[in-house]
Amino acid sequence: MDKIYYATSNTGKIASAMQKLEGTNIELLPTNLNIEEPYINDIKKIAKHKVLSAYDILKEPVIALDAGFYIENYPNNPMFPGAFPKRDLLDKIGIDKLLEIMSNVDNRECFFKECLAYYDGVNLKFFTEKIKGVLSYEKRGIERKDKWSDLWYVFIPDGYDITLAEMTDEERKNRSDNLNSTVKSFAKWYKKLKK
């Protein structure tokens, strides 16, 4: 079993990644590193900073994931909050206020964009993905162990009429837009690297 560190303390991200790595030869080891993220609206640069910083501390193969959330028609600020969903949206505004602000907006298209970075001292590799959907009009769903953001209560993926928080574990795992997730793409690449 290959052990790779995951530069996050977010238990939802770890549980979600472990679920996607079932059947692989990869075991993720959580870290509780306090890495300061740069305040730049670019998830790839943030993921790169996190993975290189974590490697400098651990001196072991490590992955880091950064995700952004983009609301295409957020009033007076298209593509808000970008690379800062926790800092600028969830912590400052909150889900309830977001829904209030968006209540009269008809075009509710939004998307998650994520970038997973891997570094082992030699190989630096990035995997990106965009997951499209729409913003619901109300919070829906239940608390999930693999939830890594409260946005799960209001994000409805394309092709569905329920939020991520309303989906069962199987429904989330088998979503068509989930089949080529960054974690799975990384696992495929890593398997080739190790041959």
Structure notes:
- This protein is 29% helix and 25% strand.
- The protein is built from six helices and seven strands, in the order βαβαββααβββαα.
- Strands 1, 2, 3, 4, 5, 6 and 7 form a seven-stranded mixed β-sheet that branches.
- The protein is globular and about 50 Å long.
- The model has no long low-confidence stretch (mean pLDDT 91).
Short description:
Helices cover 29% and strands 25% of the residues. By secondary structure, the protein is of the alpha/beta class.
First-residue to last-residue Cα separation = 14 Å
Mean pLDDT: 91
Q: Figure out the total of helices.
A: 6
The helix/strand order is EHEHEEHHEEEHH
Give the low-confidence spans: none
- What is the tally of beta strands? 7
Shape: globular
> What is the CA-atom radius of gyration, in angstroms?
17 Å
What percentage of residues falls in helices of 4 or more residues? 25-40%
* Beta content: 25-35%
Query: Main beta sheet: strand number and arrangement?
Result: 7 strands, mixed
Q: State the secondary-structure class.
A: alpha/beta
